[in-house]
Specification:
- This protein is of the alpha+beta class and 481 residues long.
- It is 28% helix and 21% strand.
- It has 13 helices and 23 strands.
- The strands form eight sheets. It has a four-stranded antiparallel β-sheet, with helices on one face.
- α2 crosses α3 (41-50), α6 (240-250) crosses α8 and α7 crosses α9.
- The longest helix is centred in the first third of the chain and has 14 residues, at 9-22.
- The N and C termini lie far apart (118 Å).
- 15% of the residues are buried.
Length: 481
């Protein structure tokens, strides 16, 4: 009315709502009625025909009397004003490591105050003297961390089903003017996968006033179209060892029941073309690749393969995923059970057995014999080659060479010449001729006249060392075939 009719749709809708809520007048109702009848002419007549008798009509001749004004406030163009519905009740999923003792602040929706992307929402609560004493007297799980805590949980605002913890973007939590720690992102091992933040309860206990002073929590969050709710609880925190104790006490499947489950899986099905005579189960935990200590599985899983209960609880204490490591299906703590039959098998078998097979009658057998047969078969098929040791030095003082060359050098030195130098051509056993390639022509002539001096053994001991070739090391005789 007298303003610009162009602009963004969101701004126009906001202006229209503010106009109806703040500047209510009979003239405004008349204009709204005319606009509505011009756009929906049939709907107006249908409403008039369907309206029960006795219900006042808002677009009857308006008057400035209080009665007419009150009727116009209750009805707009024949349709009653919507009654504000209460906020949907949000239920958070129970967590195995947290036992809720008291609710300090029920789930409350975070309301955006403006169109900014970053919003600040505040909530306040007080601790009773009894609650403060519980926190003070609680035992310590580790230095600075108590077993009784005040935690803040955030989830989507949805009343359908139970909600898991979910952080809004750009979250920051300030408790009594001090920022508290919010779990960060875990890097991903897979290429191209963005880091994922584990959404878990935020411990705000160290920054609280343990008295009757009001505690103020300010939550900074990103407003990107999704609705979030926040709640504050007084909880007791459990460790992985305490959960394991509960599991051993309350959820152990007997060996007889496990045998019945195996027989059901291996029972002959006449409609099936394939008959299963056995099921193999590994005794190695798929989580840590070590021998199982306490075999555990999920009741809703179809497989018989187990994982180690202790390692599974410890990993979920650090990074809660609660998924089966065998089939990747949900594995909540309430559905975990310890396999009694596999526990007995682990006690009866030795450490070198890594796999067993369940049979149709519920019995089992180790698979160790099959592996040993495979190893023996591999050994029998491996060809045997003679081993030649080329690292033994020869008696003539030369470097190692072919065995036939060294033998030939010894046999050809019948004249007792120095260092095995022969006066004439020697014939090796294989029929080849021995040729010393390290000596030049002058040395060969000297070697030829050395035959007359071979009788004097005393002079041969004082004779100089054999002449070397152009290399720094001695060359041995090479057999030419």
């Amino acid at each position: 009315m007298g303003r610009s009719k162009s602009g963004l749709k969101q701004d126009l809708v906001g202006r229209a709502l503010r106009l109806v809520q703040t500047e209510y007048s009979p003239e405004l109702l008349k204009n709204v009625r005319q606009l509505y009848e011009s756009r929906f002419p049939k709907t107006s007549g249908w409403l008039a025909a369907r309206r029960p008798e006795g219900i006042p009509v808002a677009y009857s001749p308006l008057s400035s009397s209080p009665t007419a004004t009150s009727q116009g406030a209750d009805y707009l163009n024949g349709i009653s004003k919507p009654i504000p519905t209460p906020a949907p009740e949000v239920k958070l999923v129970p967590l195995p490591f947290y036992q809720t003792l008291e609710t300090l602040l029920p789930p409350t929706e975070l309301i955006a105050q403006n169109n900014e992307k970053l919003q600040d929402s505040q909530c306040i609560f007080e601790l009773t003297p009894n609650q403060a004493d519980q926190i003070r007297n609680a035992s310590e799980l580790r230095p600075g961390i108590r077993s009784i805590q005040v935690v803040l949980r955030i989830c989507y605002t949805d009343s359908i089903g139970v909600q898991e913890d979910q952080y809004p973007p750009n979250i920051a939590v300030k408790v009594n003017q001090s920022y508290c720690h919010v779990p960060g992102y875990y890097p991903s091992n897979k290429p191209g996968v963005e880091p994922r933040r584990p959404c878990r309860p935020v411990n705000i206990t160290p920054w609280l006033h343990l008295s009757n002073v009001t505690n103020r929590v300010t939550i900074t969050w990103g407003n990107f179209g999704k609705r979030y709710s926040v709640a504050v609880y007084l909880v007791r925190v459990f460790t992985a060892a305490e959960l394991f104790s509960q599991l051993k006490l309350c959820s152990v499947e007997s060996a007889e029941r496990c045998r019945e489950r195996i027989q059901d899986k291996l029972r002959f099905d006449p409609e099936s073309e394939i008959a299963t005579t056995g099921l193999r189960v590994s005794l190695i935990c798929p989580l840590v690749k070590m021998r199982l200590g306490v075999p555990c599985r999920v009741l809703t899983c179809a497989h018989l393969q187990c994982f180690d209960a202790v390692f599974f609880l410890q990993m979920n204490e650090k990074k809660p995923t609660w998924t089966c490591p065998v089939c990747d299906k949900p594995a909540p703590f309430e559905l975990l059970t310890i396999d009694g039959l596999l526990s007995e098998i682990l006690k009866e078998t030795s450490e070198d057995i890594e796999e067993i097979e369940y049979l149709t009658d519920g019995s089992w057998r180790p698979i160790r014999d099959d592996k040993e047969k495979d190893r023996e078969r591999e050994r029998s098929n491996t060809p045997e080659y003679p081993v030649v040791d080329i690292c033994i030095p020869e008696a003539n003082g030369h470097s190692p060479a072919h065995s036939s060359s060294s033998v030939t050098g010894k046999s050809g030195s019948g004249s007792g010449g120095p260092a095995g130098v022969t006066g004439g051509p020697a014939v090796p056993p294989a029929g080849g001729v021995v040729v010393d390639l390290t000596l030049d022509s002058s040395s060969e002539e000297e070697g030829g006249g050395a035959g007359g001096d071979s009788e004097d053994t005393e002079d041969s001991a004082d004779s100089p060392a054999p002449k070397r070739g152009r290399y720094d090391y001695d060359k041995d005789l090479v057999t030419a075939y």
